Amino acid sequence: MSSLKRATEKNLMLFSGRAHPVLASEVANLLDIKLVPTTSYDFANGEIYVRFEESVRGCDAFIMQSHSAPINDAIMEQLLMIDALKRASAKRITVILPFYGYARQDKKHLGREPISARLMADLFLTAGADRLMTVDLHTAQIQGFFDGPVDHLIAMPILGRYVKKKYGKKPLAVVSPDAGRIKVAEAWSRSLGNAPLAFIHKTRDISRPNQTKANRVVGDVTGRVCVLVDDLIDTGGTIVQAAEALMADGAADVVIAATHAVFSGPAVDRLKNSPACEIIVTNTLPIHDDCRFDKLTVLSIAPLLAQAIAAIFEDGSVTSLFRD
What we know:
Layout: E1 12-16, H1 21-31, E2 38-42, E3 48-52, E4 60-64, H2 71-87, E5 92-97, H3 116-127, E6 131-135, E7 150-153, H4 156-167, E8 172-176, H5 182-191, E9 197-204, E10 212-218, E11 225-233, H6 237-248, E12 253-261, H7 267-272, E13 278-282, E14 296-299, H8 302-313
Parallel strand pairs: 1-4, 4-5, 5-6, 6-7, 8-9, 8-11, 11-12, 12-13, 13-14
Antiparallel strand pairs: 2-3, 9-10
């Protein structure tokens, strides 16, 4: 006999960094498993230590870490987790990034700048990742930065179902905060019964981050509830200016829908005081109690992540999750 044959049993193991354990626990519950016990702590000089408390040999490993502030610590911890799994002989390592750090730095605007989103992909590949899973990348072409499979999940069905149920009987318009996200707005329009489209013409000073100016509304929004859609809300300046421009142009009301609630600096105060009647986000990032307010609605992304993990583990289709 020239070979030894043995039927192997697949073993799914889910790991979580310290950035967003609540989301990871929710995903684990939906999969009917427990998170792998992990020891993680910081040394006095800021170095991070990680060790898994169970054998991972031959497992199908899924490492979940959302890149929340302090973002560089979250990224480094996840890289160390990947390296630990690789050295402990995990069979396949899937890196789950509900929010992909540095995704906005996906191109060069000026000379002598890095393409940081590409560097991120290279770091994960070098650390030992076989596959990436992420939600609503800032630009879809980032998928091509990683030399391996990338599952780009879309939160729009979750957000869209909520908006349609609550506001679907009113005259709607879907609004992109800039011309660059028109394709996303078109998908939203289709999901909301071909609601008319509009976008905000804005200008940006590339030498000053997080600062834009909403100039005018392109499209007819008069008397309509405007669904203002974006991938993330950081400091809130862009989205609040857009909401103000829509109301000034005759909109009946404004609903803001975004996947990632980064909520840096003055974001919460700006959103509280904005003319928008509701701000709808998902929990791809942790939203602490001091960042919650009456107009904020948080929808869980955990069911989508759990379905995608199950599909990958069972060698099924992730694309089928987005079929109507």
